Every structure is written in C-alpha cells, then in structure tokens.
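As noted in the main text, all predictions were made from sequence alone. Below is one such record, for Aryl hydrocarbon receptor interacting protein like 2.
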Amino acid sequence: MEETYLLNYPGVKKKILAGGNGPMPHFPPGTKLVFHFQTLLDNFERTVIDDSRKAKAPMEIFVGKMFKMEVWETLLTSMRIGEVAEFWCDAVHTGLYPIVSKGMRLIAQGKDPLEGQRHTCGMGNMFHYNTTGWPELDELMRTPQALIFIMELIQVGDPFSYKRESWIMDKDEKMKEVPSLHLQGNALVRQGRFREAAKKYQEAVVLLRIVLSKEMPGDEDYIAVDRLITPLVLNYCQCMLELEEYYEVLEHTSDLIHKHKDCVKAYYKRAKAHAAVWNEKEAARNDFQKVERLEPRFKPIVNQEMKRLGENLRNKWWDWFPVCGCATGSYW
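Prediction:
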C-alpha cells in the first residue's frame, strides 16, 4: 500500500497493512477506542520497544479526553474496525511518548502511573526527570525522534454505553463520585462483604489521589482533599483486618502515621496488625500505648487489648515449649 500523509496532519504517514470491516465509524467525543499497538524505532532493525499484546490486554483511550499522545487519537480515528495500519510519526508528535510508555508499563505492573512525576504538565515532567527506569525510554527523552506505531483497531464503543473511567472524569465528577463509593463501601461492610467494600474504598482513594496530583501541595484545596483520604484508608484497613491481610494493614497505616503523627485510629489498627502477625511484642505494645497517650478515653480498650496480647504471647511460647526445651516460666 502506498504511503500517504494523513489529511491536514503533517508529519504523519500511514500504510494500511490489513483492511478493516464495514463503513468508517463515527467518533463523537467520549467514544471509547480499544486497540493493540506496537511501538518501533525508525531504524534499520525496526526495534520494538512496546507491544500491548505482551501486557495481555488491549489499550483504551477516549476521544476528546486529552490523552497525552494526542496524535494517537488522529491515527485511530482514521481507521475502520479490524484494520491494521502502520504509522510513521515525526519527532514533533512523539516527544511525550516516554512519559506515556512509562505510565503504561507501571499500570501493567499494578503500580501508580503517576509515580515519580512532579506537579507540572507532561512536557514539564520531561525536563525534571532523573530516569524513567527503562534505558530505552531515557534515550528517547534525551533524543526525541520519529517513531513507528503499528495499530489494530479492535472496538469502537458507544460513548454512553459504559461506566466512565476514573481518569477521564473531570475534577467535579471525581469529587461527586467519592461520597457514593464511600456509602457503597459502608453498606457492603454492614453485609459482611469486606472484600467488595475494600474495593469501593480503594476506588474512592484512587479518585482523590488523582485530584490531589493536580493540586499544589499546601494549598487549601490540597489540604481539603488530603483530609478526605484518611478515613477511606482507615476503612480499607479495617476491611483488611477482617480479611486477615495484616501486612496490607501495616503498610497503609504506617503511611498514614508518617503523614499524620496523631492519627489514633491508624496506631490502633497497626497495633492490631502487629499483634496478629506475631511481630515483636514491643511493636504492638508501643502502638497501643501511643493510642492511650493520644486519646486517654481509649484506656479501657487498650488495657483489654494489652491483656489479650500478653495471653496470646504466653500461648505462643507455651506451644513452642516442647520443641525448644525452655524452662517453664522463664519468660513470664
């Protein structure tokens, strides 16, 4: 197929590798585009640096929702469903690709795609990086260059037929969704459905953290949003306690305590988790004592927990007694 420039879009060449099916789709704002892609260097070897099929899931973007690689929307909306096409894109269109690629790779690893980014625009992040963590992406950041994208358009969705993804919501939509998720989580807790409740709390925290990433640290809006995160994380941790996933509790409560030194409930839940995983008795005891110092009215509860901790530790050592040969009463 002869290469041609896309209409009114200089710096892009398209070659159709496999024709699509049916008429040309319509692409109104909000249309969901599902596709596979490969990214290749424009060199003799045509080195492949990304392949969505290796991530075992196709890529999704939404028309008109300011995806950082704006050229991809132009490429995809030139295609029919089922079409496979190769696009050559000049460096003017690929400057942000390393940032986009890093985010996609982190998502594939189950990590936060905003990890390592400062509070700035995408192009600003390019000038403030140390390393993406991938040498080939670091090289693209140092030396922007033309890239080749091979794309297969799999599906074109009705913009009103799906639940809106969190990353395409605007700030107001995210903030309106959070109370609903919180209430749904609470309702599931009352039904004893802790795993499902934890997921609702987690979704709400993700929305708030996305909003937080756009605010300036120290501003009133930043502080207000940050305050909404704490009770949701605590609720999530309570669900994890119920599900006996104690190390998850230790991780998230420790993060909270690092940020909020006087968070009584975080100390209490962390103490419970320490006790449950047989961490050294001092770790649980110190947290329980911290709870009592911060909130004296919790003293009866702390005393009860400390008593239970001592009994559990004695039982633990007693169970070990026949094996280790320790003298009875040596530690108590």
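The longest strand covers residues 147-157. Residues 4-114+135-157 form a domain with the Chitinase A; domain 3 fold (CATH 3.10.50.40). These features were considered when defining construct boundaries for the mutagenesis experiments described in Section 2.9.
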